Amino acid sequence: MSWLSSLFTQVSAKKPRPEGKPNLTVRERFSALRNLPEFLRLIWETSPGLTLGNIGLRLLRAALLPAMFYVGQLILDSIIGLARTSHGTASLMPVFKLVALEFGLAILSDALGRAVALLDSLLGDLFANRSSVRLMEHAARLDLDQFEDSVFYDKLERARRQTLSRTVLMAQVLSQAQDIITMVLLAVGLVAFNPWLLVLLLVAVIPAFWGESHFNERSYSLVHSWTPERRELDYLRQTGASDETAKEIKIFGLSGFLIDRFRTLSDQFYAQNKSLVVRRAGWGTFFAALGAAGYYAAYLYIITDAVRGQISVGQLTFLASSFRQMRSLLEGVLSRFSSVAEGALYLQDFFDFFHMQPQITRNETQPVRPFPRPIRLGFQFENVGFKYRNAEKWAIRNLSFTLRAGEKLALVGENGAGKTTLVKLLSRLYDPTEGRILLDGYDLREYDPAELRQEIGVIFQDFVRFQLSAGQNLAVGRIEEKENQDRIQSAAAQSLADTVVKKLPNGYEQMIGRRFAGGVDLSGGEWQKIALGRAYMRDAQLLILDEPTAALDARAEHEVFQRFADLTAGKTAVLISHRFSTVRMADRILVIEHGQFVEIGSHAELLARGGRYAELFALQAAGYR
Ligand SMILES: Nc1ncnc2c1ncn2[C@@H]1O[C@H](COP(=O)(O)OP(=O)(O)OP(=O)(O)O)[C@@H](O)[C@H]1O
């Protein structure tokens, strides 16, 4: 039995499991079970009442089956007793009572089954909802940096996808416990009669379980190792018959070529799969026969005892039914074990996700520094360097400059120079890898990140187009003020979003974006005006606009900046733009290249200096001549 030896090598040698590959070693299956207590605790916390009810009903149901078998035994024995002694004259009342009892138990068992299914589904729905809320709450606490790690992201995705299957896992775990209790109760009866019956049962069932696991793993491996070919098969099938490809397939006469390749590949897969399913069917028959042999051996043994008068006919049926039931329960428990253990392994992703902690938090050990109002000195970059997670090169390096309080600073640099990165460091979406950023002389890390973000209004170039109403899309700039219509309307007026809203059929109530019914989509520039309005929703001390006007037409851009200068009077502002017509309005301009400082100064100073800025400015100006 080569499969048997391969099973044992699995137990002893743990192989690395490629990502997404579902076949597990036995050891992996067992060790994943350690996640179950924590999982059960979460279920309990979801609803102690429903959980208690569920467990209570299942306990009752677990005990019902042995009770019914026992009543069956009593019925048979009393029938035989009556037939022997009374020759039809004695009262049938005791038998009727027993039958009525069995009938009652049968109805109760059915009702309990339905009640358990109902509680499973209610508890499962509630658990799925609570898990999604927990997941969203925890994800909101984590750092941006963590979302950019592909391993973390896979974990989050898997944790998210697991929400539904975890409710299945919950029902499986509870059913497993219920069946085990039924088995223990039935086993007590069998052991009381003869312990060897239990041994016989295990001998009959366990090989079938091992066989099942082995062939499951083989099919998974086959399917897994054939992933590229199966993708190719899908591709060939689609390419061979689709509206997009039909034209070229006909003109070039490619159908024969594609069909031949499809036929070759699918025949190879068929051959390999056939050998596996034939072996599986063969072994399956053998194991089923082994199980049946165990059952009939036990049956013979019990019959012999009954014939010898050592047990009654009622006991005979009780034991035979118990044995048969135990066999099917044991098979069920063992095969469910595989899926429970696999589900428990996926729980690991879920828990790993929750064990992850954000790095950018308030320092709990030090008293938090109150945010300065107003900012007096500004933000000072001291030799700041930053490298994205898993990135080879530095996005920003050796950067030193001061963003003075109250000034309007424009950032200029080619694509990928590090402008957006600098803004993310200012708003503490990331912390510098090297060096530090000071605010009024103290490290930015000494302030509460939540307070810092309240004082900063940032509109990123890839701002979010929320599928919400126009008013809500503005209100996200300060969500606490979502009911404050005056504030929303004045923010809209400041960013020119009011001109967009006026044209909408339902004004501020109009759903924008196409995802939901009745939604109206906007042009790129119209979206940008709405997004800009978010910056004016808050009374931030530092305003950052990352390419805020890229999609605006020339007239709108001019107007936006006229207003911007007025509206940010006395506030600190950072502007990122590739348009020099915008940039030149700033008090000073910082030029960066490959994440490094190049020069800083006013438009006039930089032009006079004749450096990089003057060169870029001349280049763009030439385009307009
Ligand atoms: N999340 C990220 N992970 C890894 N690298 C990143 C990430 N974001 C940006 N980078 C890299 O960091 C460098 C600086 O990017 P940044 O977005 O700051 O440039 P930018 O000056 O704003 O460019 P643009 O003018 O195109 O908006 C680029 O080389 C970019 O590829």
Automatic annotation (TrEMBL):
Domain ABC transporter: 379-619
Bilayer disposition of the protein: Multi-pass membrane protein
Subcellular location: Cell membrane
InterPro entries recorded: AAA+_ATPase, ABC1_TM_dom, ABC1_TM_sf, ABC_transporter-like_ATP-bd, ABC_transporter-like_CS, P-loop_NTPase, Type_1_exporter
The entry's keywords: ATP-binding, Membrane, Nucleotide-binding, Transmembrane, Transmembrane helix
Keyword Membrane: yes
Main location: membrane
SMART domains membership: AAA
Keyword Transmembrane helix: yes
Positions of transmembrane segments: 180-210, 281-302
A Gene Ontology molecular function term of the record: ATP binding
Residues of the ABC transmembrane type-1 domain: 55-342
PANTHER family linked to this entry: ATP-BINDING CASSETTE SUB-FAMILY B MEMBER 10, MITOCHONDRIAL (PTHR43394:SF1), ATP-DEPENDENT PERMEASE MDL1, MITOCHONDRIAL (PTHR43394)
Protein name (database record): ABC transporter ATP-binding protein
Naturally occurring in which organism (per UniProt): Hymenobacter cavernae
